[in-house]
Structure formats: structure tokens, C-alpha cells
Amino acid sequence: MNDAQAPPDLEALEWEMRCDMAAVFRIAARHGWNEQIGNHNSLMLPTPAGAPEEFLINPRGMLFQELTASSLIVCDLEGRVLRGTGALRKVAFFIHARIHLRHPAAACLLHVHPQYLTSLALLAEPEMALAHHNNLLLNDRVKIDQGGEAPAGDCAEGDRLATAMDGASILIMGGHGVTVAGPTVADAFDELFIAERTAMYQMTAMATGQKLRTLPHDKRGNWHGPWGSRLDARLHLDAWRRVLDREEPDYKT
Q1: Are the C-beta atoms of 17 and 185 separated by less than 8 Å?
Q2: CA dihedral sign of residues 91, 65, 179, 32
Q3: What sign does the dihedral 164-127-214-190 (CA atoms) show?
Q4: Is 77 contained in some domain?
Q5: How confident is the model over 77-126, as pLDDT tens digits?
Q6: Is residue 2 included in any domain, yes or no?
Q7: What is the pLDDT of residue 1?
Q8: Does residue 32 surpass a pLDDT of 50?
Q9: First CA to last CA across the chain, in angstroms?
Q10: d(CA 63, CA 144)
Q11: CATH number, position 49
Q12: Three-state secondary-structure class, residue 149
């Protein structure tokens, strides 16, 4: 068997995926995206053919700034903890497992409460304005869910959220926060980062009381493929990892 035909080293691949996820948790902590010890990010893991599907997620009760590559737990899509120390938060299971099941291409899910996207979600009629150049690429990827009246407490609510994400990679959850999906950690992270920045510009401009400008609709990107195919998502996450390598190197332990 030549190198091109050799099966991937799943253990090494999982470790690198863990390091990417741990980096995203630390970056999110720096930006104040998480809700105390709440919020959760997950990543589907590669598994041998025919093996049950598994995902990485943060265990209940830890701050994002505490998380390391080795502290993430591995669960199956039934909510059982297969490897690692700690429990899976029920609300995390209901959101993440159900979205992963409905959307196999959504390998990485980031569910957080960043200040500006969450502020937008609290409006009676939330909308991503077509005002900033970023909106030309973002807006066709956004859906706004106004059906969630309480935290996800069962699989039915998880399924409802999963359905709400059909055709979108960014779900602004009315009265709640945001969930961003991507085929890789870098894709989901970069899209979340830019969406939050764009919401920051919008909410800041709205605070002036002046009318927002509207860009031409024919300039919209209508892009629904992997975010990183249009932007430097991998390079962005790598740049943050270099910062963490210098300042918080324990993230990859």
C-alpha cells in the first residue's frame, strides 16, 4: 500500500482537531462570547467505516478559558459520554446532537452568546442589515429563529432548531444567542468571528438613531459553500493559534 492509499492516522487527526477546538474556546473566552460556564461547541470526529458517530464537546461546568485539548469529552449521538472526564450538559446534547444528525455537513457547531449577535437576537424584529460590505457575503447564510421560547429541554426542540438551520450556517436565535455551523473548526470560527464583528458595527450604528444605509441587492454574494473557500478561515485560526502558543500554550495540552 502506498502513502496515497494509506488510511489516515485517526488518533493524530483527532488530536489536531482537539487543539483547534481548544483554541476556539480560548479565543471565545478572550472576546467574552460565552455565558459563565454555559455555552458549548462541538465537532464531529472521523471514525472508521461502520463505527458509531462521535463528537467532541466541552464538559459541563468548565469555563471556556480553562479548557484544553485533552479536557474535551467524546460523546455519541445518543448523548452517552464515551471518553473523557465530565458530564454532557443536557441542553448541549439537545442542540448539538440533533443538528449534527440533520446536517451531516455541519461538522463543527459553535453555540455562544456574543454581545452583539445576542443583542440583535433580543430585538422584536432582528435583522442583519445589508449595510456593511460583510453583509454582502453573510446575509444569504443567516436565518433568524423566533420560535424558541425557553432553553432547549428535549429532542423535539433540538429537532426544531435543526430544521430552522436548513439552508443556513448562521442561526440567530431570538431571545437567546447564535449557533454557527461549518464543515471545519476554522470555517465555523471565522464565520462566527466576522458575523459578530458585523453585528457590532450594525448595533453601534443603530445606537446613533440614524437610518442605516442599504447596499445594492445585486452585489450580494449568494454564497452557501464552505466559508473558508471565500475567506482565509484557516489562516485566521492559525494566526490566533500563534498568539495562544505564546500566551496560553497550555490550550494544546
Answers
A1: yes
A2: positive
A3: negative
A4: yes
A5: 999 999 999 999 999 999 999 999 999 999 999 999 999 999 999 999 99
A6: no
A7: 36
A8: yes
A9: 33
A10: 27
A11: 3.40.225.10
A12: coil
